[in-house]
């Protein structure tokens, strides 16, 4: 089969790789029908995730068709159309029993495209398949479903729910890339009073308006703190979500929140950030971090199937599998290309 392979920092290749095989009774083999690229893949290519070793197939989001199941798989059969979750779950360990699947101790968690071969390939082996896939409802397209593999549950769980967004809140989202836009989309489920999107790229701020931001701020030309002070009588935002993953954006997020508010870090960080405890120890802040657990995926699937959540605007560029290199180029230059999420499907 063909697959997108990480060859070391800064190097990747769409090349021939061995077909995946059933290794454990709970495995399923899935033919990949649609896949996307995540910002985390770009972090890996920069060398920010040292656990990813050379010759690893990247990717942790896919929609596909089951072609084979192990002897221990009970809920899937060949021919089933499924979403492959970005997080795998053994279902038995302490963390899985608490629905903290991202911290799975039984061999799951974020493993696809990280510790084992991932989804940016023609076929993928999915461990713990009963717990780590979701059936695609009738009437829901591959494209719609694909956005529920990672960015929607990540933004909802690590951003909106960890950030305790409540009706009437002023919410600031630092970074209007795909994760930030998904945070806007899912924050709206909780009826905040005002959503403020902050980004240096005007094209992404335009997208943020489309996704439901009430106010947009380019910090290159405008003070985000002044804008939020005007909205909150100087208090600061009730919840600030960091959706970039740099030291500066994390520190800015802490400066934008009110006393007693929440800072929810969603971004993937590859460098240390300073936590100014000398300034914030007195402010009763709650600062959360997190890897998505995907416990919210069934809820989000239901909202999409019921036409209560529209993910279609997320995909801005479409490619076939034989255009993987071009897709990576477009996605990695998103400030120039306007790319949010790229969709790759089987060549016709």
From TrEMBL:
Its cofactor is Zn(2+). Gene3D superfamilies: Medium-chain alcohol dehydrogenases, catalytic domain, NAD(P)-binding Rossmann-like Domain. Residues 10-344 form the Enoyl reductase (ER) domain. GO terms for molecular function: oxidoreductase activity; zinc ion binding. Keywords: Metal-binding, Oxidoreductase, Zinc. InterPro entries: ADH-like_C (IPR013149), ADH-like_N (IPR013154), ADH_Zn_CS (IPR002328), ER (IPR020843), GroES-like_sf (IPR011032), NAD(P)-bd_dom_sf (IPR036291). SUPFAM superfamilies: GroES-like, NAD(P)-binding Rossmann-fold domains. Belongs to the zinc-containing alcohol dehydrogenase family. This is Alcohol dehydrogenase. It comes from Mycolicibacterium diernhoferi.
């Amino acid at each position: 089969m063909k697959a997108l392979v990480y060859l070391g920092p800064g190097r990747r290749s769409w090349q021939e790789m061995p077909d995946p095989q059933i290794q454990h009774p709970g495995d399923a083999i899935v033919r990949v029908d649609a896949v996307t690229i995540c910002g985390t893949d770009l972090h890996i290519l920069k060398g920010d995730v040292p656990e990813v070793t050379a010759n690893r197939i990247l990717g942790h989001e896919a929609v596909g068709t089951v072609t084979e199941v192990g002897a221990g798989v009970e809920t899937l059969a060949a021919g089933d159309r499924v979403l492959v979750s970005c997080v795998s779950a053994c279902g038995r360990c302490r963390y899985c029993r608490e629905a903290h699947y991202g911290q799975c101790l039984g061999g799951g968690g974020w493993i696809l495209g990280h510790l084992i071969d991932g989804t940016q390939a023609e076929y993928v082996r999915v461990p713990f398949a009963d717990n780590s896939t979701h059936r695609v409802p009738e009437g829901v397209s591959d494209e719609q479903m694909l956005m529920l593999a990672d960015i929607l549950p990540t933004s909802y769980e690590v951003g909106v729910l960890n950030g305790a967004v409540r009706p009437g809140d002023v919410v600031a989202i630092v970074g209007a890339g795909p994760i930030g836009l998904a945070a806007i989309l899912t924050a709206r489920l909780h009826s905040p009073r005002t959503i403020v999107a902050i980004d240096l790229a005007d094209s992404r701020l335009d997208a943020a308006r489309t996704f439901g931001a009430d106010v947009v701020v380019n910090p290159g030309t405008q003070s985000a703190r002044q804008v939020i002070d005007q909205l909150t009588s100087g208090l600061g935002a009730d919840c600030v979500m960091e959706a970039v993953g740099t030291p500066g954006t994390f520190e800015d997020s802490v400066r934008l929140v009110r006393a007693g508010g929440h800072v929810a870090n969603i971004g993937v960080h590859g460098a240390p950030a300073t936590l100014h405890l000398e300034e914030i120890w007195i402010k009763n802040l709650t600062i959360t971090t997190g890897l998505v657990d995907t416990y919210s995926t069934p809820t989000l699937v239901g909202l999409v199937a019921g036409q209560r959540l529209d993910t279609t605007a997320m995909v801005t560029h479409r490619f076939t599998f034989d255009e993987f290199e071009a897709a990576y180029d477009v996605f990695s230059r998103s400030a120039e290309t306007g790319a949010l999420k790229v969709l790759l499907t089987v060549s016709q």
